[in-house]
Amino acid sequence: MSELEKAILDGIKRGMNLAHWNLRQLSVAAGVPYRSLQNYMSGRTRMPADVLLKICSELRIDLDYLLDDKIRPDKWSLWQSLLDVFGDNIEKLEPGDAIEKDHESASYFDKLSAASHLADQISIAYERRRIERVIELKEEREALSDVATRREVKPRSRKTR
Hints:
The structure is a single chain. The protein has two domains: 3-67, lambda repressor-like DNA-binding domains (434 Repressor (Amino-terminal Domain)), CATH 1.10.260.40; 75-149. It contains seven helices and no strands. The chain has helices spanning 3-19, 23-30, 34-42, 49-59, 63-67, 75-91, 103-149. Helix 6 (75-91) crosses helix 7. The longest helix is centred in the C-terminal third of the chain and has 47 residues, at 103-149. It is flat, with a radius of gyration of 25 Å. The model is unreliable at 91-104 (pLDDT under 50).
């Protein structure tokens, strides 16, 4: 098994952990026979590209991020969620200079552009915050480790005669 295949399988396993899914649940959701999925995940047989894409879709992870060892929600799901939440506000956006001033044709492009921009900014902010939190946790763990290793031993008092 190549390093790339290992990275893909590890990424899928991380995605399954994040979704709190087991192999059986993923099998049903992706429409892949359980035994086949078992063989793919163990590395006994190669996973076909269409199965990989189905799995990524069901786990809602972007294949590019799976390959780069980063898991985050796929852009389309995030875009759709933002549109659902901010849809009323996005519809009120004024057409940009690069888009025709015809409001009927421009509003769709404005919504698409604004939602995509928001999705990108939220994804970047999420990833930045996640990295900061990992660093904080690492520093806390190191500090606790230092405290544990440097426990102060109180010197014994000598009795004088």
